[in-house]
Amino acid sequence: MKALLLVDIQNGFCPGGNLPVPDGDKVVPVANRLIDSGKYDLIVASQDWHPPGHGSFASAHPGAAPFEMGELSGKPQMMWPDHCIQGTLDAELHPELKSEEIDLIQQKGEDPRIDSYSAFRDNDRDASTGLSDFLEDQGVTDLDVCGLATDYCVKFSALDALEMMPGVRVRFIEDASRGITPEGVATAIDEMRAHGIAVINSADALRE
């Protein structure tokens, strides 16, 4: 049972969004080719779904500026611009993504006291979203992960998938993903490889 996880391919992380990833929209046609390929038995997506005033927003902390380190619930936290607020256009999946083919959309980041990069659990590693249980219930044996952004939500999703679903083969699709900084992407890829996650491209996935 082979599954594809599309991480946070939302307006907010594409050009014109509130927290755009450089060339974030370039992942959409690649993701659509993967969706259309027939290679996957199951297609799931994650969706950042923050309430207004989420604690990871710089605007929730007087004097804080976006992209500086702050603190949330006693732990270090990158301060982000307000983004992907529930019910807004910014939070919607990219309009050109073939979302009608997605079997499950897993929302995350709803607790204002803790951020949630991973599609599988909050950053405190205590509160699960339930996605791992869903995939295991479906009998998933192979999981390909891609989306936005490589150096944050994609990396943490891939690493959590590996840890929370022992025995499932996890791969990262590089050309179906984009990151915030080149340095961050390189570090994330090194970290994923070090944990045994294969780094492939979409052509590799489509050849199988």
From TrEMBL:
Query: Does the record's keyword annotation contain Chloroplast?
Result: no
Q: Which domain of life is it from?
A: Bacteria
Domain Isochorismatase-like: residue ranges: 3-204
Pathway, per record = Cofactor biosynthesis; nicotinate biosynthesis; nicotinate from nicotinamide: step 1/1
InterPro entries from the xrefs? Isochorismatase-like_dom, Isochorismatase-like_sf, Isochorismatase_Nicotinamidase
* Swiss-Prot/TrEMBL keywords: Hydrolase, Metal-binding, Pyridine nucleotide biosynthesis
> What CDD domains does this protein's entry cite?
nicotinamidase (cd01011)
Q: What class of enzyme is it?
A: hydrolase
What name has this protein been given in UniProt?
nicotinamidase
Source organism of the structure: Rhizobium croatiense
